[in-house]
Amino acid sequence: MVDQQIFNKLLQDYKQRVDLALENWLPLETLNPVKLHQAMRYSVLGSGKRVRPVLVYATASTLGIPLNQVDGIAAAIEIIHAYSLIHDDLPAMDDDDLRRGRPTCHKQFDEATAILAGDALQALAFYILTHDSEMTPDASRRLAMIEKLALFSGSRGMAGGQAIDLASVGKDINIAELETMHIHKTGALIRTCIQMAALTSNTVSDAQFEALDCYAKKIGLSFQVQDDILDVISDTHTLGKPQGSDAGLDKPTFPAIIGLQAAREKALELHQQALDAIQCFGAEADILRLISHWFVQRSH
Ligand code: GRG
Question: Which residue pairs, CB below 8 angstroms and at least 24 apart, start in 181-184?
Fold first, then answer.
């Protein structure tokens, strides 16, 4: 079993790795249009947890894929995530002033620049997937990855989940409807990380792919349940975004619908189901097991 210290070191290594890739792919802020490029870099290179790249690297490590083959995937998904946060924070959506402990993109720059930074980041993610020379040379596989990212980040995935989220504000929704929203809004991109990394492998079997996808679905939801719990029990400084913002916006959450204790139990149940899903793997998947544990234990 990978111990906690080794796990923490691995997380650090993965973060450093993707930060390097992001630094390389993002246009320099001295390039015109300067303000747009500054806004893109400001939003991506902040202090995010890099959860999605970590999942890409951990899946690659489980499947014995050299990490340089998935750097582009990790960077592209983190860039999609950054775009989603910029747009989520806009006045037309959650209207937030604070993200990752500093002003949101539209507060630091202006609203038009923030919209454009999100748009340009989304385009950059797909540019990376077509241009990264370290990724698989197999064009059909690369196309399958691009399809995954387009599908899971679009109206049938993350953007669709955001639409459901906005439509549910102030409404009484049940737990199944809440889960549907999060499966799309947060879960879809988490599944993408694992599926895109697995698509790099020459040897992954259908059964292994299914097992990893099942794991991804469980941790995608547990991540969100914990996020809802932290919005209730944590503080603005630790979260780097306003605590209590869900309640403030009258958003349905797991603690609001089933109570704090039941939400905690739900997170642990999903963690157990995630572990069960990857039973077919041996010690090579310990990193994924520890990530699932991290998701339900995290404090920010
Ligand atoms: C605007 C198309 C569009 C989509 C927005 C992901 C999303 C959809 C909105 C984010 C709102 C939110 C707070 C969702 C809860 C879970 C979540 C995705 C939190 C943010 O991700 P972290 O915790 O953030 O990985 P860091 O800053 O660590 O990268």
Answer: 182/220, 182/221, 182/224, 183/217, 183/220, 183/221, 184/156, 184/157, 184/158, 184/160
